[in-house]
Amino acid sequence: MSGGSERSVLGWKLQGHTYKKMAANIALECALECQRDEICQSLNFVLSTGICEFNNRTKEARPKDFVPAQGALYFKRVLGRTPLGSVPELPGVSCKEIKASEGETESSRKWLSTIQPGMSVLAYCDMQTEG
Q1: pLDDT tens digits, one per residue of 85-106
Q2: Which residues pair with 110 in a beta bridge?
Q3: What is the DSSP letter of 48?
Q4: Can you give the residue range of the structural domain that contains 17?
Q5: 106 found inside a domain
Q6: 3 conformational bin, left if phi > 0, alpha if psi -120 to 50, beta if neither
Q7: What is the DSSP track for 55-106?
Q8: With CB atoms 3.0 to 4.6 Å apart as the test, which of 53, 92, 96, 115 could cross-link to 18 if both were Cys?
Q9: What is the pLDDT at residue 115?
Q10: Do 56 and 110 have their domain in common?
Q11: What is the rounded distance in angstroms from the CA atom of residue 89 to the CA atom of residue 38?
């Protein structure tokens, strides 16, 4: 698979983080659309229905939500992916989640979600303590 994604993981999907869907004939169409979307972190392609599920998280950020799914292909966007917590439109829920998603080890200011849906705040993340 080209288009800036890692090799596919057959029989697995990330559940609970889909923010939009589209129909496609092949997974490459999904990958190209993901590349054009700043929020897209990964995608699931359901082979039997030809549906792309665009995710705002990766399996690294949410490993417990990465589940077996017969007939599904999972792809993580690699090239040009907006790092979690780097823009207000893609806030992390915690510094720990950002560290897991990005492998981030340098402490800095990151966008974090608030209890009010759609709102985010710029906060300092100490990546040594994840606080």
Answers
A1: 999 999 999 999 999 999 878 8
A2: 123
A3: T
A4: 9-76
A5: yes
A6: left
A7: ESS-TTT-GGGEEEEEEEEEEEB-TTPPPTTSSTTS-BS-HHHHHHHH---S
A8: 53
A9: 85
A10: no
A11: 9
